[in-house]
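Sample intake sheet
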Amino acid sequence: MTFALPAESSEFLRRLGNKSRADRNGISVVRGTIDHRSIEVIHTGVGENVCRQRIGKFLENQQFDFLISVGFAGSLNHELQVNDLLVAKNFSTVDLKHASLSNVSIHAANMLTVPALIDSGEERERVARESGASAVDMETEFIARACAVHGIPLLALRVITDTPTKPFPAPPSVLFDIQQQRTHIAVLARFFLAHPRRMPGLIQFARRISRARKTLSNALVRIVRDL
């Protein structure tokens, strides 16, 4: 199972039994179980370069029943709303039809992997029009390529955290430094000190992220039990 960042995986990792940590080819791996099914989790990082490197090392000389690529995504339209679950049908090769997910609503739509966070409504509309995708992330395409090379079935599952009407509370460069793979607290603080009226938006965004983690974790546990 792959997540981009611990901010996406923390709720699910708390649900793992028999949890331990290991190192494989320089990649930190969290191992655990859900109902006696063995699971390994890594964080790929955000964006192409770090993701391709880490997923390549993770899958090297390994065989898994399937891989679930999990995390957050941004909606490009008004159909997918915050906290909606999405299976990227253009990347997934695992069929969920036989899983007992009667209480979980999951949308099936195309997703696009992009090189940078998309914020403005106009840019989201343009990308949707040109690609035909309903949502975007920054890693799934590269994970799908690696799975294809190794012959590993893939399920690409995302939860929506931002939409055209509920965008990010600050410019993407303020929220996350892709080169250094982290948020600079000082940069974030300076921005909101200079724009105090945006602070309620940051608080609302933090609450959205918290709900998204729980939604994702609950769905993952059910999926792992049923697949």
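Comment: The radius of gyration is 17 Å. The mean pLDDT is 93.
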